[in-house]
Specification:
24% strand, alpha+beta, 13 strands, Alpha-Beta Plaits, five-stranded mixed beta sheet, single chain, DNA polymerase, domain 1, 357 residues
Length: 357
């Protein structure tokens, strides 16, 4: 019995946080925009959350220390992260996307997979529908996105990054190998810098090199992941689009402007982090069971501490109470805190569970 052909979309909002800020503040349009912490003339703490493409031309990247971003691009407009606004915009965009798909899976705040297999009969129809989705998002939110279309999630995800910003790349099943082969190995899903360096040492520079490599050697060097890498290089990915397993945890952290031992301030900040995480939990209709806090001291010593509750919940009070309890052992008079974080995991869709009241 033949397996029905799958057509998967991956939608990726372009420079999302920065684009939302540019929309809200037209006066910064055309300037380098960096969203993150206050650079304080190169002495600020924290990291770059995102930046627009103009700032990226100066070498600024997500996750970079804000002080380094300031040195690379001091003329940029630096803005604080406004999660509340981004979540509101994201919720509306995800609502648009989910209405178009048979199956829908959000990947964080600005990406989503859509299974369109029964919505379109071929790739030409898929292209037209992708253009319609791009237009609908732009008309309603004045934001651009890039869409990748392919026979599975792997190909769709790589394709969405192929022509950014405001791109559309369609890769039919028959073209998968020719599409993947010339791409640098770090374009393959799950291949980070460390794995890329190991592969480079084996003479593997492109995805095509990996596709023609001896799979037994890959297993010897990388274990089970070697098999997965080999399959990915062939363009093989059978994972389904769906909510379950899409989001494993939701969290936030903050680096203080100054190392602190003001415990009241620490708890106030912790509560704000919990509220931000809670809003996203509610947005995606999740229940959670595990709470984790992160503490980093002034000497960069970092600790994480988790507690799994005996029940699933979606209540902010349960989150805050548990986070406070976990934080207590780390409040030491002789040690100042540099960073704290709060996270929930063991997530389950509340639509499939009886809600706690």
């Amino acid at each position: 019995m033949a397996t029905a052909k799958r057509i998967i979309f991956h939608v990726d909002m372009d420079q999302f946080f920065a684009a939302v800020e540019e929309r809200e503040h037209p006066e910064i349009k055309g300037k380098s925009v960096i969203v993150g912490a206050d650079p304080k003339e190169g002495k600020g703490r924290g990291v770059v959350s995102t930046c627009n493409y103009k700032a990226r031309k100066y070498g600024v990247k997500s996750g970079m220390p804000i002080s380094k971003a300031w040195k690379l691009c001091p003329q940029a407009v630096f803005l604080p992260v406004n999660y509340r606004l981004y979540l509101q915009v994201s919720a509306r965009i995800m609502d648009i996307l989910s209405k178009h798909a048979d199956k829908f899976e959000s990947w964080g705040i600005d990406e989503a997979f859509l299974d369109m297999s029964s919505r379109v009969k071929d790739y030409e129809e898929a292209r037209k529908l992708a253009l319609e989705i791009k237009m609908e998002i732009y008309e309603k939110e004045k934001l651009t996105c890039s869409i990748g279309v392919g026979p599975n999630k792997l190909i769709a995800k790589i394709a969405s990054d192929f022509q950014k910003p405001d791109g559309l790349t369609v890769v039919e099943e028959k073209d998968v190998q020719s599409f993947l082969a010339p791409l640098d190995i770090d374009k393959l899903l799950w291949v980070g810098k460390k794995t890329a360096r190991k592969l480079n040492k084996l003479g593997i520079k492109t995805i095509g090199d990996l596709a023609h490599y001896d799979p037994s050697v890959l297993v010897d060097k990388f274990g089970v992941m070697g098999t997965q890498l080999y399959l990915f290089a062939q363009g093989i990915d059978r994972s389904e689009v769906g909510l379950r397993g899409a989001v494993k945890s939701i969290g936030r952290n903050v680096t203080f402007e100054k190392d602190t031992s003001d415990w009241e301030f620490v708890f106030q900040t912790l509560d704000k982090l919990c509220e931000e995480v809670y809003k996203e939990v509610k947005q995606y209709n999740f229940l959670f069971k595990t709470v984790t806090i992160t503490v980093r001291y002034e000497n960069f010593e970092t600790h994480t501490h988790s507690k799994t509750l005996p029940f699933l919940t979606n209540r902010l009070s349960d989150f805050e109470k548990t986070a406070h309890e976990l934080m207590q052992p780390y409040l030491r008079p002789e040690r100042k805190i540099r960073l704290i974080g709060a996270r929930v995991s063991s997530l389950v869709s509340s639509e499939k569970q009886k809600k706690l009241v």
